[in-house]
Amino acid sequence: MILYCSCAIIINNILKEEEGFIMSQRSSFSSKIGFVLAAAGSAVGLGNIWRFPYLAAQYGGGTFLLVYLILAVTFGFTLMIAEIAIGRKTGLSAIGAFRKLDSRFGFLGILAAIIPIIIFPYYSVIGGWVIKYFAVFISGNGAKAATDTYFNEFISSTAEPIGWFFLFIAFTAVVVLLGVQKGIETVSKFMMPVLVLLSVGIALYGLTVDGAMEGLIYYLKPSFENFSIKTVLAAMGQLFYSMSLAMGIMVTYGSYMKKDNNLESSVRQIEIFDTGIAFLAGLMIIPGVFAFSGGTAESLNQGPGLMFVTLPKVFDSMPMGDVIGTLFFLLVFFAALTSAISLMETIVSILRDKFHWKRKFTCGVVTIIALLMGLPSSLGFGMWSHIKFIGLSILDTFDFISNSVLMPILAFFTCIFVGFVIKPKTIADEVKIGNTQFKGERLFSVMIKWIAPVCLIAILVSSILNALGIIVL
Ligand code: PHE
Predict the structure, then answer these.
(1) pTM of the entire structure?
(2) Residue 48 CB–ligand 1 contact under 6 Å
């Protein structure tokens, strides 16, 4: 509710200000709220609604939630401040920004550029699943989707998921090609509060079903037995992913931010938005797993399919379930689309800066690469399910490489770069331009110099050793 009210206030503000914001040229956001909403549009997506709940279910419920929240206000805060400030200070996107501040660190920009290229294709595969479920519900077939085998049959087939995946990429590419982001962002600004309201409604309904309370407790109550290094690892990867951190996107957004906007409070608002929506998604899905699938270890460990298996069961038991399911998947589609647009736009602008290609041509190249790279992720659940890397499916492998390997590496170097090369004071001075004080300055300096780099290295090493089976966490 609080979240809804804040969305409503924010939207009201935009209407009052009647100011648009365009990101196509290096103009700046005309208002702070424009900036916050655009950054939230990139941040809030499948990461919050699809990825967060399945990780929370798998890694100990309340324990995961608590670890995630602690990381969000420490790590998340620190990295987001650093990235946005670097962008605003230099007025450049990642590749140029790091190089401008210190030519020896130009490689960070390149590393940042690789990450969205890995994420975008498999993100679109999941985006395709969302469109499929929208189609199923709008055609009144929600009850079928609520059966146990439906989801697995769908993802293990060959042609159908690929078709939906192509459609999702096509939507994204058309928006990026026509440069109509502004239109989409306006629509999704209105959709976001509806999504929040609907999620609250679905979650409340879900809690009334027998067995759900046990799920609620599992989701909210931390328990020490459920804690392991894996929990921290998963929460950290999720944090980067969900907040669009450690891949240069926030640097680019920062480069569009006006100097007199309050950077620190913008970061807080983006974090509240993003975490609030993830929390609600968990509230909707995890009690449902207990109510409809018994909360067994197997049902909690389902991984990427969790949302698609659990929610149709919730909808099926509700009055007007098909209508609610249709609306829900439509809203999720919009949230996913705004994130996918920011991913594709980033890739397009990096390639254009580098090769000076025309926009249309670049969009074509990116679309083709994404189609080719996404195909194995889609087939990895069916025809190619025998292909596994370190025990992971193809989609999970891409997810692992970007979130558990490359992002911690980039985040580590960003911390070293800010902490010891340009020094935290450079960032603090930038933060203070829009607002003379920087309340979290002490936390920021200690985190970026010491705590974050040490934890990141520990996490990276343990994640790789664990993946290789050298140590079992
Ligand atoms: N943050 C987005 C989400 O939660 C995903 C994303 C990652 C978008 C990276 C842009 C860049 O879904």
Answers:
(1) 0.90
(2) yes
